[in-house]
Specification:
8 helices, OB fold (Dihydrolipoamide Acetyltransferase, E2P), 6-stranded mixed sheet, alpha+beta, Rossmann fold, 5-stranded antiparallel sheet
Length: about 350
């Protein structure tokens, strides 16, 4: 099989609960060996999408294809997927080894084969020597690794992860992000990850699917999603942004904050209302006499690697990230190069090419 061929296809999936539409005609494909993240706020439909792939929910309409075969009517235990939930659902009366071995024992595999697979999984998740430990004596991060090992030991083709790091503290969560990505690359299997945390999505994913209100708003790799958000919602949800209403005067010229700015976008027509998105790190602080805009610094916060400044320019207020601090109350100029001005129509919903 071709490595980049579609492993899973969701075709025109709609899901309703008591007349309320949770997923509204979404279509999505997932490639073999890809790390795909469903990203969006609570209630956007990302967990429902994962549960439909797992077989825990049945779509109201649409197809779920696995290697081209419709699996909508296939029960969860017959699907070549396993799921890791935020609540790990480990068996407290079993030790680590027996928790991981549980599915293998149901398959009645030989004891030696079970022990070999469990030991390999313990090594993979950096828990070698923990087999006889009680699971309730483990830390949250260790329990999460046991839950992942229990899912991976059955050798699924797809691992579904529903906010598995949500219960961990910040430092441990960051460490586990790197471990999960490393595991996925070493195993060469497909991961479908659900989160509302944009940093997790940007850190781990090959492909990010941004969702809102049961729709897919944008699909792309992390850099594309960050650099070229499809609409104001995506720009605001993925990182920090200055989002302003503007008017596209003509191709490569946009009006916002009381004046015209050259940009690189075209095809919006003339005098068309648009959203203008500028990342805080893409605004340069310069002298008042050379800035495209001038303003007063209203607040300054030190963020560790940069200073965050709120600058009032009269017609608009901007958030600026800079490694150089300017004192509160000072007057500065703002300069924005054309490439860093992103123009979009509100609520565009582009699909995924290829």
């Amino acid at each position: 099989m071709v490595e980049n061929e579609h492993l899973i296809d969701l075709n025109h999936i709609t899901k309703e609960y008591d007349g309320v539409t949770v997923l509204d005609d979404i279509s999505l494909y997932i490639r073999r060996k890809e790390f795909v993240t469903l990203l969006g706020p609570s209630g956007c439909g990302k967990t429902t999408t994962l549960r439909i792939i797992a077989g825990f929910e049945t779509p109201t309409s649409g197809e779920v294809l696995f290697e081209g075969r419709d699996i909508v009517s296939l029960p969860p235990y017959k699907r070549r997927v396993n799921t890791v939930f935020q609540k790990y659902a480990l068996f407290p009366h079993l030790n680590v080894h027996d928790n991981i071995a549980f599915g293998l024992k149901l398959k009645k595999l030989p004891r030696a084969e079970i022990d070999r697979r469990v030991d390999a999984m313990l090594d993979l998740v950096n828990l070698s020597g923990y087999g006889k430990r009680r699971v309730d004596a483990l830390s949250g991060g260790q329990q999460q690794r046991v839950a992942i090992a229990r899912s991976l030991v059955n050798e699924p083709e797809v691992l579904l992860l529903d906010e598995p790091l949500g219960a961990l503290d910040l430092k441990l969560r960051k460490g586990m992000q790197l471990e999960l990505k490393s595991m996925q690359q070493r195993l060469g299997i497909t991961f479908l990850y659900v989160t509302h945390d944009q940093e997790e999505a940007l850190t781990m994913s090959d492909t990010i699917v941004v969702m809102r209100d049961g729709h897919i708003l944008q699909i792309g790799d992390p850099k594309h999603i960050y650099d070229e958000p499809a609409n104001a919602f995506v720009a605001d949800f993925i990182g920090e942004s200055n989002i302003l209403r503007g008017t596209m005067v003509r191709d490569e010229l946009v009006h916002f904050a009381g004046q015209d700015f050259p940009c690189v976008d075209f095809g919006f027509g003339e005098d068309a209302p648009v959203d203008v998105v500028i990342r805080p790190e893409d605004i340069m602080l310069v002298g008042e006499d050379v800035g495209q805009l001038t303003g007063t610094i209203r607040s300054v916060l030190f963020k560790g690697v940069h200073y965050e400044m709120i600058i009032d320019c009269g017609a608009a207020t901007f958030k600026v990230h800079s490694t150089t601090m300017q004192p509160q109350g000072s007057r500065v100029g703002l300069s924005i190069v054309p490439f860093n001005i992103h123009i979009m129509r509100p609520m565009e919903r582009p699909g995924r090419e290829g």
